[in-house]
Amino acid sequence: MFEKVLIANRGEIALRVIRSCRERGLRTVAVHSEIDADALHTRLADEAICIGPAEAARSYLHIPAIIAAAEITGADAVHPGYGFLSENPEFAETCAQCDLVFIGPTPEQMRQWGDKVSARALAKSLGLPILEGTELLTDVDDAVKKAESLGFPVLLKASGGGGGKGMQVLRSAEDVQASFETARAECLAAFGNDALYFERFLERPRHIEFQILGDKYGNIQVLGERECSIQRRHQKVLEEAPSVALTDQQRTDMSETIRRAMSKAGYLSAGTLEFLVDDRGELTFLEMNPRIQVEHPVTELIMGVDLVAEQIRIAEGEALEVRDQPLAPRGHAIECRINAEDPDTFAPSPGVITELHMAGGTGVRIDSGIYGGGRVPPHYDPLVAKIIVHAPTRAQAIAKMQRALSETIIGGIRTNIALHQRILQHPAFEEGRISTRFLDDLRG
Amino acid sequence: MFEKVLIANRGEIALRVIRSCRERGLRTVAVHSEIDADALHTRLADEAICIGPAEAARSYLHIPAIIAAAEITGADAVHPGYGFLSENPEFAETCAQCDLVFIGPTPEQMRQWGDKVSARALAKSLGLPILEGTELLTDVDDAVKKAESLGFPVLLKASGGGGGKGMQVLRSAEDVQASFETARAECLAAFGNDALYFERFLERPRHIEFQILGDKYGNIQVLGERECSIQRRHQKVLEEAPSVALTDQQRTDMSETIRRAMSKAGYLSAGTLEFLVDDRGELTFLEMNPRIQVEHPVTELIMGVDLVAEQIRIAEGEALEVRDQPLAPRGHAIECRINAEDPDTFAPSPGVITELHMAGGTGVRIDSGIYGGGRVPPHYDPLVAKIIVHAPTRAQAIAKMQRALSETIIGGIRTNIALHQRILQHPAFEEGRISTRFLDDLRG
Amino acid sequence: MKLDLEQLRELIRLLDEANLTEIEVEHDDDRIRVRRDPAAIVAAVPQSVAPTAEGAAAAAAEENGSYVTSPFVGTFYRSPSPDSDPFVEVGDEIVVGQVLCIVEAMKLMNEIEAETAGTVVEVLVENGKPVEYGDKLFRIEAT
Amino acid sequence: MKLDLEQLRELIRLLDEANLTEIEVEHDDDRIRVRRDPAAIVAAVPQSVAPTAEGAAAAAAEENGSYVTSPFVGTFYRSPSPDSDPFVEVGDEIVVGQVLCIVEAMKLMNEIEAETAGTVVEVLVENGKPVEYGDKLFRIEAT
């Protein structure tokens, strides 16, 4: 058992981790930048250490400061949350060298799954269905040849990229010739790595992901899927679980395929396998996220698990419960990410929260990083809160989320609540006819 | 189906009703006093009508103003919440005369159960176990005689009283002689009615209550019990469900006894039967509350029902689902009533909410009537919010509530959060050894 | 010059509530100052509306208008029946106790009477429209 | 002109709390002044934090000292090893670049150097205690 956990993050996820720690009787240490001296995670942890100025590079991303904070407070484990250092294998290694347990997968697993080309190869070798794609592209001629053999349209992707950065759809050999060198240069500048490859491009795919947990003893639990197709520029906006696109049989089959694959890989802690679903309902592996995800609460609500508590238990060396058959989802859950941003221009909207009422009542869960009277600094992710609802059916969950959004008051900053309202009242959303192009279609 | 419901209340319960209406697609009308022009229920209902000045007698208790508000907005039903006019049969009658559906029991039922002596007689005739007690007391000699035959100590109660007002423990004939006339005069002054009677006085009873629902077709559902022993001056402070004091057999038996009794009575809508439990675990009927109760959410969480939605369905004429056997409780729920009051002196603490963070995360439900930047006026009930948690076991629910309280920030007013923290960490509470004297013992 | 009377009234109310002698606000080229003679402040006067000196001058425009507000929630009628003439019209001189309108609630016709004499200078609600408690119905200028 | 009443109310609240007679705030082209008659202020003002001579003196001292703050999270050491003398003592004259202390983090001994010359007038952290980023370590008076 740990005694004290340092949370190397801020905002709603830092508070999320504090909650699971506190319910397990663990003490918590927050780290914070100077501008976050009055932030919620700073105020609510048992101890709080200022680790640097507002710039993330000198605070939340600064490994020595975080390790030193753990040292002076006597923390015995570190939870990285998502973003910041959560997928940084050097950080995980440094923790280990300093006798701190990193609550997450091993550094090797982070490396394996962090590089997209090696992740695809690994997934394929583990028996997961893969979207047709190519090896790394050597030069523009090689690129044209590989694109033609894969068949247009193709998606040009950076092996070291993430969050959709550096991706381009190419529809002809001319497109490839026109774009390849520029893309390579941009890619080098952005990721310090110019490795590019192609994937088959799906025009209107769904984005579906499966939540897994793995322990030190090779046990893997697959906790169903999340539907994450509602995205803007590859950033998820609204998620739900389960997905209307999967039949029960597909869910069962895919869960078993994933369980076998990840057992073989010996995956540790929480992770998410992302898939694209084409118009015939076929799932193909996209990537693996070796961390807790923003949208994990929808899974928690329908499966009745506390994923962060499970991460902690696993890191403490406990074994997962082995079940004869996977947990069945109960009801339907939807999450809306509330961002401090202009609903039309999507420009960030920092400020002081002058008025605040978060939705409440039956079946509503709030995971928030702000408080009335507090400040949203301009330096970090605009995600300020998540509203998550749980109801017996999808239609009831939609009605409940509409009700929850209608009663949410956040004064002093602008938010994307109106965008969520437009999504939820759209007939195509109501009927479950969605794809990753939904928001472009909505705005187009 | 209704189209528009007027909510004749304010604060958290008004918002609670708005929620269930909105999820059913019903429009809502808030009524408010002048000082509540910016209150949460005023802001969040679809329409809001100012019905009078701050004094409740001229606004929330003023029947003609509320009826007129329903008329000018075209509401077709009225939900009275709890308190204010919720147990006023004249209000229910006036609604009926004005073609407004009163969402609650019939005026006759409110009269039957509202008078405590007639309620006792009715309960007895319906086969419910009754705490030994007397008829009405005619004079001081009659009182002494009846007290002696019942056996000291006895509890002197006002037939028209409520909320513990006018109750006194008398331990000898001398006590009766010394107190009777004064009590009668006070009682007349307070309730306009000097009818007094005795009940057997239990030194350290538990207070347990059963939630029921009845429809127009004589169906009664019994939705388990709530443990409400944690009280201060007969005001509940913290409630939980289920009660550790009942065995499964007792729960099943008592549920069936109540179902039969209330079916015979033909009770309509939501109601609560309160019982005292003596040290041998025997339950005796105390009173019936013909309305939704403050603490209804603990039942909602463990039974998976929306009691306000059920009240609305019943008022619309729908039938309750008839089950072969009663719903089984799932997990354990606790509610803490957060009052705007000094935690030591219990003096009310109105003011402007300068900082606000309500607890969130898994298994936490908030039913609140305040918002950051809003005002708590001095004119009404000090209850500003309810924190309700749900977890698989009682121990986990206690840990979760402690975690929820620890993260709650309410600036600008004082609250009783510290009192709840003292209760939750008390060994006797943890072990479930509680009675209605718990808080006196804690403070004594 | 555009005079925002409502704003000025807010300031005077604040001056009263907080028991102040002066509030001055300057913004761009605008400046508002509300002042009161310290001697005029009595110990316990919540919501006193006794403007003096400069305050009185500023509030003067307001002062010769007062409002009749609705003491009930209900429906506003200007005449006793659909076919009859309105109780009062703009420009009418009215006396204390004169019926100005009806606010109907629960089928009862509540006659609203003038509490001050003066001239009706504005009718603020349309005939047949719903009114809330405290809604302004008429503006009356003292004569 | 846009009037921020909430702000005004804050000012009045401050006026009350601090038992003042006037607050004036000027910013760009905006100016706000709130005043109260001194005679109107009674003794029975709860939680008054009337600034006194002592408070003023303490604040003044602040003014002519500057602080060396910790650029790292870690453990503060006044001397290079447990047996050696502190790098500096109160009263020492220091020069730019002089080592004042060590902040240890991740087994690394980071020497903290003076960025200004002056006299050490206060050591604010005990030897061996943890420090956060930005914690004040020494107060230096310019010479």
- What is the averaged pLDDT score of chain A? 94
Please compute the radius of gyration of chain A using only Cα atoms: 21 Å
- Structural class given helices, strands, pairing of chain C? alpha+beta
Distance between the termini of chain C: 27 Å
List keywords for this structure.
heterotetramer, A: 444 residues, alpha+beta, Rossmann fold, Dna Ligase, domain 1, D-amino Acid Aminotransferase, Chain A, domain 1, 3 domains, five-stranded parallel β-sheet, 15 helices, 20 strands, globular, C: 143 residues, OB fold (Dihydrolipoamide Acetyltransferase, E2P), four-stranded antiparallel β-sheet, 2 helices
Task: Describe the protein's architecture and organization.
The complex is a heterotetramer, with two copies of chain A (444 residues) and two copies of chain C (143 residues). In chain A, helix 12 packs antiparallel against helix 13. Chain A has 15 helices and 20 strands. With 143 residues, chain C is an alpha+beta fold. Chain C has two domains: 36 residues, no CATH class; 77 residues, RNA polymerase II/Efflux pump adaptor protein, barrel-sandwich hybrid domain (OB fold (Dihydrolipoamide Acetyltransferase, E2P), Beta Barrel), CATH 2.40.50. In chain C, helix 1 packs across helix 2. Chain C is elongated. About 16% of the residues of chain C have low confidence. The chains are: A alpha+beta (444), C alpha+beta (143). At the A-B interface, helix 1, helix 2, helix 10, strand 16 and strand 17 of A face helix 1, helix 2, helix 10, strand 16 and strand 17 of B. Strand 1 of chain C pairs antiparallel with strand 2 of chain D, so a sheet runs across the interface.
